[in-house]
Amino acid sequence: MTGKSFTSGGVTLEAQSRDDLLLVESYGDGGFRLMGRRVSGGVLVLPTGFFPIEAEDVKSLSTADFAKALEAEQKPELVLIGTGEKMQLIPSALRQALEAAGVGYDAMDTGAAARTYNVLLIEGRQVSALLLPVN
């Protein structure tokens, strides 16, 4: 285990894990830091990689934004949905698609989703996160 701190946009996350885990290192200023790289805009984070998404807000989220998670060889048991600065409900069509795929989900503000994703991944859970940016 290592303890590394990452700061971006005034927010610091501390990684308390093996170096090979794909953690959300920081968030803010309209993007994220993943694997030491800055990613602008929204992102889908899986334990095996991360993928930019088209959606810029909750209303524009679609199943296409979740495709890599839903098509993964091993589907996540839980998708954390970071809805931006504050928690918002996701569109009902999206909720129905996730339920039909047999994937659990939880919507929360992006900061909480990023932190929860990191904790669950460190615990060895099969988790992914779809994160909308915050400023």
Strand order across the largest sheet? 7-6-10-8-9
Number of strands: 10
Largest sheet: 5 strands, mixed
Our estimate of the beta-strand percent is 35-45%
H/E series: EEEEEEEHEHEHE
Q: Ends: how far apart?
A: 31 Å
Share of helical residues: 10-25%
- Rg, nearest Å: 14 Å
Q: Assign an overall shape.
A: globular
Tally of contiguous helical segments: 3
Known CATH architecture of the domain at 41-131: 3-Layer(aba) Sandwich
CATH superfamily of the domain at 41-131: MTH938-like
Report the CATH C-level class of the domain at 41-131: Alpha Beta
Unreliable sequence segments: none
Give structural notes.
The chain is of the alpha+beta class. The protein has a domain at 41-131: MTH938-like (Hypothetical Protein Mth938, Chain: A, 3-Layer(aba) Sandwich), CATH 3.40.1230.10. 19% of the residues lie in helices and 37% in strands. It has three helices and ten strands, in the order E-E-E-E-E-E-E-H-E-H-E-H-E. It has helices spanning 67-70, 92-100, 110-122, and strands spanning 2-8, 11-17, 24-28, 31-34, 37-40, 43-46, 49-52, 78-82, 104-108, 127-131. The strands form three sheets. A five-stranded mixed sheet has the order 7-6-10-8-9, with helices on both faces. Strands 3-4-5 form a three-stranded antiparallel sheet, with helices on one face. A two-stranded antiparallel ribbon has the order 1-2. The longest helix is centred in the C-terminal third of the chain and has 13 residues, at 110-122. The chain is globular. The termini are far apart.
